[in-house]
Amino acid sequence: MRIGLGYDVHRLAEGVPLVLGGVRIPHFQGLAGWSDADVLTHAVMDALLGAAALGDIGKHFPPGDPELKGISSLVLLERVGVILGEAGYKVGNIDATIVAERPKIAPHVESMRAALSGALGCSPGDIGIQATTSEKLGFIGREEGMAAWAVAAIEKI
Ligand code: MG
């Protein structure tokens, strides 16, 4: 078994959708970035790639690549699953925490677990998701951005 860690931050902006863990969440702000800026899915991908020592998402999916403009991060996660499989690994389990001041994340967690596990071909029971606020402190507390942490365990097939 091997373990990886992923971390990501994206800026909040008006006029863009908020997508977390592959789920579109109604909110007056969304996350800005080259892809759909799904900060949770990006942290999960880095945790998986890191567990296999296969680099990071910037290496596999370079920002600025026109093919990736606005792409769903679930599509990228599916590709990460294929990359892991080709390297001889399968997902053991994933645990992730979203840090966001607003909106309430809890009502969407089950949908996120279903979306992420669907993209990876694992069970929703292999994916844990927590959410917390930043107690109004720092850039997250000022609602300028959101962050996500993830750890992943992978196993040799
Ligand atoms: Mg990112």
Q: Can you tag this structure with a few keywords?
A:
alpha+beta; binds magnesium ion; 60s Ribosomal Protein L30, Chain: A; two-stranded antiparallel sheet
Please describe what this structure looks like:
The chain is an alpha+beta fold and 157 residues long. The protein has one domain (2-156): 2-C-methyl-D-erythritol 2,4-cyclodiphosphate synthase (60s Ribosomal Protein L30, Chain: A). The chain is built from five helices and seven strands. It has helices spanning 39-51, 57-60, 73-86, 109-120, 138-141; strands spanning 2-13, 18-20, 23-25, 30-32, 89-99, 127-132, 145-156. It has a five-stranded mixed β-sheet. Strands 2-3 form a two-stranded antiparallel ribbon. The model has no long low-confidence stretch (mean pLDDT 97). Magnesium ion (MG) is lined by residues 8, 10, 33, 39, 42. Magnesium ion (MG) binds next to strand 1 and helix 1.
Shape: globular
Structural class: alpha+beta
Kindly state the number of beta strands: 7
- Which strand order do you get reading across the main beta sheet? 4-1-7-5-6
Strand content: 25-35%
**Tally of individual domains:** 1
Helix content: 25-40%
CATH level 1 class label: Alpha Beta
Q: Quickly count the helices.
A: 5
Tell me the radius of gyration.
15 Å
Going by CATH, the architecture would be 2-Layer Sandwich
The overall average pLDDT, rounded, is 97
Q: Regions with pLDDT < 50 over 5+ consecutive residues?
A: none
Are any ligands bound, and if so which?
magnesium ion
The topology string of helices and strands comes to EEEEHHHEHEHE
